[in-house]
Amino acid sequence: MDTTEQTSAAEARERKVIHYSVNGEPHDTTERKLTGRQILEDAGFTPAEEYRLVRNDGDQEIGPDDSEPIHEDEAFTATFKGVTPVS
After folding, report:
1. Stretches in the chain below the pLDDT threshold 70
2. Radius of gyration of the chain measured on its C-alpha atoms
């Protein structure tokens, strides 16, 4: 495999669509890493600071600025942690 073929193969891996879910809703990305903020905002959870994000295979919170590797079929849970107004 020459250098051009190696570069093309590397570019194809980088562009591969990765499927993941947040609270059971499907999402996808071509990025190999996303911040907690990107995961939350892409799923419609804004502002990101008002949500707790965890990977479903553990209970460690992912902060808004934490860069996380994204794997195929990975699942995350977002939970509101802000104040809920009561009328």
Report:
1. 1-14
2. 16
